[in-house]
Amino acid sequence: MKHIKMLVFDVDGTLYDLTNHEIPLSAVNAIKQAKKNGYDFVIATGRAHYGLGKALNDLHPDFVLSVSGGVIVDHNQHVISHHDFQKQDVEQLLEFAHQYEAGLIFKFLDHMYIYQHPEKIDWLEGQINSDIGKTPFIDCPMQDHHHIALPQSASIHADPKAVEQVFAHHPRISFLPYSADGYDVVLKGINKGVGLQTLMEHLHLQKEEVACIGDNYNDLEMMQVAGYRIAMGNAVKEVKEIADFVTSNSNQDGIYHALRHLHCF
Question: Which of 53, 169, 206, 251 has the fewest other C-beta atoms within 10 Å?
């Protein structure tokens, strides 16, 4: 598409094939060619920008919308935008974690600080043993880093009934479930769409100059912000319904076919 200047990609289920647990070589080569032809390459993910892992870092994104749009960084890891919790929110989460013996990690701008019960965080061991490694994580037994800086999100493992009872009507933070008792804790109103809109304003880009590719519910807001929308073949129905084009599955050269459709190379 002749007006498109920026390509925005979700990670899991889009760039990252969850069947083979890799970024397909066809996707890597297609993105490299698109970058060579002048397109800005953006990753939009719930992960922290310093915890993407080698496979994603080796793609050299121009920008990253991390923690679901709560933090935006450029290719030099310079922070363009971030939205922080209030200290009282952090204290309330910490008090809750103590009371219910919950697993708790806070995601700050520099590292993920492990506050309590890392063994209960179901994704932690997998990330540490993957190409992400141990470096993004800091063991924080004193549970005091929020006195120095404020986090932008958290991960917590706790009894869902307790979460509902304590936080159902919280004015500033939301609990987004990712497993039976695991939650991403984020600021209300922050999502990938908000992050993308902020980046577009920063770069003075118009809607029609942006294309995005996604597969899941948390991609809907950014797809509504972008001017052109591509759904993966493995996408949920709601994403496919608003897409301008549906490519093949992530493990069936979906990214390659999407970028060919956009005439990026």
Answer: 169
